[in-house]
Amino acid sequence: MKGFTLRKDNNIISGAIKEGITSIILTNKDGVFRLTFGSMDKTGMHAYTWYASDLEVGDTLQICYTDIVNISEPQVILDYNSLDHDKLELDYYHRLKKELIEEGVLPNDNDLD
Question: Which residues pair with 73 in a beta bridge?
Fold first, then answer.
């Protein structure tokens, strides 16, 4: 099956999924660069994180799109069918609220006293 081989310094990670998406994403938030390599099945209910890490100055990356024979063991597997959806929504609410407070869009609850 088609997928990616990621080489980060001396680590080689291979990831793919038969039917779904596979991505390698580089982000920068608050001066921290992060690499996330993952897949999600076509139903959107199973996600695999092959590799996730903050990047340091001097890290070297090589990405190759190729036929994957041996898939690496995922760091994380999420089965969204088995998760408590009320808890997920509450966690999402708190994460968004914290982010909006940090950005100054919402007042800090502690400042209301």
Answer: none
Can you tell me the distance from the alpha carbon of 90 to that of 44, in angstroms, rounded to the nearest whole number?
20
Q: Is 69 left (phi over 0), alpha (psi -120 to 50) or beta?
A: alpha
**Tokens for 2?**
């088609």
- Return the amino acid letter for 97: K
Q: What is the pLDDT of residues 62-103, one digit of tens each?
A: 999 999 999 999 999 888 777 667 777 888 888 889 889 888
**Sign (positive or negative) of CA dihedral 94, 24, 17, 12:** negative
Amino acid occupying residue 1: M
For residue 58, is pLDDT > 80? Answer: yes
Helix (H, G, I), strand (E, B) or coil at 87: helix
Residue 113 CA: distances (Å) to CA of 6, 44, 101, 103, 106: 50, 43, 16, 20, 15
